[in-house]
Amino acid sequence: MKTIFHVCFGLLLSVAACVSFAASTGEAQLIERGRYLATAFDCAGCHTAPQGEPFTSNITPSMTHGIGGYSEAQFARAVREGVAANGTHLYPAMPYPSYAGITDDDIKALYAYFMQGVAPVDTATAETHLPFPFSQRWLMAGWNFAFAGGKPFAADASKSAAFNRGHYLVSALGHCGACHTPRNIAFAEQSTLVLSGAQLGAWRTPNITSDQVSGIGGWSEAELVRYLSTGSVPDSTSVDCSANAICSKGLLSHQTTSRMQGKF
Predict the structure, then answer these.
(1) CA separation (Å) from 133 to 92, 130, 195, 200?
(2) Which long-range contacts (CB under 8 A, 24 or more apart) does 238-247 make?
(3) pLDDT digits (tens, 9 = 90+) for 9-20
(4) How far apart are CA 65 and CA 19, in angstroms?
(5) Cα(84)–Cα(75) distance, rounded to whole angstroms?
(6) Rounded distance, CA 199 to CA 121, Å?
(7) Cα(first)–Cα(last) distance of the chain, in Å?
(8) Predicted confidence band at 52 (pLDDT cuts at 50, 70, 90)?
(9) Residue 89: pLDDT above 60?
(10) 190 vs 230: CA distance, rounded Å
């Protein structure tokens, strides 16, 4: 009887160990997936390097100055809707209108990475002080109602997997339109001029539509991959590459060739 008990107990321990190993492996893979997403789409580009106003937030898992106290639902709301855990509205310099398209699975991976794969930094960031009326963050609720409110990306069944993957990377995670789409008088992206190039302060982002003359429609796949990964422009007369260093050295240099081939 004791022998049977010992055998059963041993089996239970083995099963528990296997379940625990599988859970830890799954969590590690989730964190790694989140790390890949955060690195590939250059979260550190804005949240680490010094920036002008509006200042970016501390997105480390600090319990005092970061997002360490955020639940996954609060994290998702901040990323997709631009509303912090305390209800404060973020400015759309944080491209949450684009991030609204991030899938639930990628939100989960990003949350796992930021909470478990990033070291907490207990340092406060600078306060943003914009002139009236831009200092009234509550007004962003009206702006969001008019110009935001997107939904998680939904694949187009009539298109290929590569097209849908590229569309997702460009419109959601990559938030390409945040820089490459002109904005209207309310600083919202103009839906009729998506990715056609825009003036951002002293520099201009290029037209990355399929236009054969002013865009990148005449490029080969290899040329497009080179442009996205290195910033090297096949024909410097067709696209102004002055701002592309931001993408090529940050966001897109982390993408594999196979992932790039679905874009645009």
Answers:
(1) 15, 8, 29, 21
(2) 238/213, 238/214, 239/206, 239/207, 239/208, 239/215, 240/197, 240/204, 240/205, 240/206, 241/206, 242/203, 242/204, 243/179, 243/200, 243/203, 243/204, 243/205, 243/206, 244/206, 246/45, 246/179
(3) 454 544 444 434
(4) 35
(5) 8
(6) 34
(7) 69
(8) low
(9) yes
(10) 28
Mean pLDDT of 57-83: 92
Residue whose token pair is 């590459």: 241
**10 backbone dihedrals φ, ψ, rounded to 5°:** -65, -40
- Residue 225 class from Cβ within 10 Å (0-12 exposed, 13-18 middle, 19+ buried)? buried
Structural tokens at position 242 = 């002055």
User: What's at 51, amino acid-wise?
Assistant: Q
Closest CA to 171 of 100, 245, 251, 108: 100
pTM of the model: 0.76
Give pLDDT, residue 1.
54
Residue with tokens 């106003």: 53
Distance from C-alpha of 80 to C-alpha of 59, rounded to nearest angstrom? 15
